């Protein structure tokens, strides 16, 4: 979060086995190919909840350039989170109107063909933010590919 850290380390070989290790990495708790601190990754994920990945990378660490791909990788590394594990701040009042909007998107697959992930968002309405922009009130987003869903197979 505070900037880049550069350090030199020694690559040690075990005397009797063919194993190599960075002892300083083990002592500091740094995994192989790990380039970001856990605190930075958690801040990236927190920022990505409300903002686009590229902007959340800029907000999480102003002194570093963190790509949107790195933010996505941090989220994927976290893995799936069940709804009951997420702490949601509850408003004191139950909303009188709850909007549920659903759509699908067409995504080209790398192996060929096309897929249609489902996209759903639930919100309590919208407020105007500027001349032509709107902001959803308390939005919650859901999406993904589902078990009984078939790919269209078109190339």
From TrEMBL:
Domain of life of the source: Bacteria
Designated name of the protein: Uncharacterized protein
Organism: Anoxybacterium hadale
Lineage start: Bacteria, Bacillati, Bacillota, Clostridia, Peptostreptococcales
């Amino acid at each position: 979060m505070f900037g880049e850290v550069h350090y030199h380390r020694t690559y040690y070989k075990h005397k009797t086995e063919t194993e190599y290790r960075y002892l300083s990495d083990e002592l500091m708790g740094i995994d192989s190919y790990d380039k970001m601190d856990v605190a930075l990754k958690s801040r990236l994920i927190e920022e990505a909840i409300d903002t686009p990945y590229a902007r959340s990378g800029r907000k999480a660490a102003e002194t570093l350039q963190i790509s949107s791909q790195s933010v996505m990788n941090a989220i994927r590394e976290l893995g799936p989170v069940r709804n009951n594990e997420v702490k949601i701040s509850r408003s004191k009042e139950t909303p009188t109107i709850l909007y549920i909007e659903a759509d699908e998107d067409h995504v080209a697959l790398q192996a060929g063909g096309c897929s249609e992930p489902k996209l759903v968002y639930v919100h309590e309405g919208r407020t105007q933010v500027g001349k032509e922009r709107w902001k959803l009130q308390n939005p919650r987003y859901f999406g993904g590919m589902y078990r009984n869903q078939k790919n269209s197979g078109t190339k």
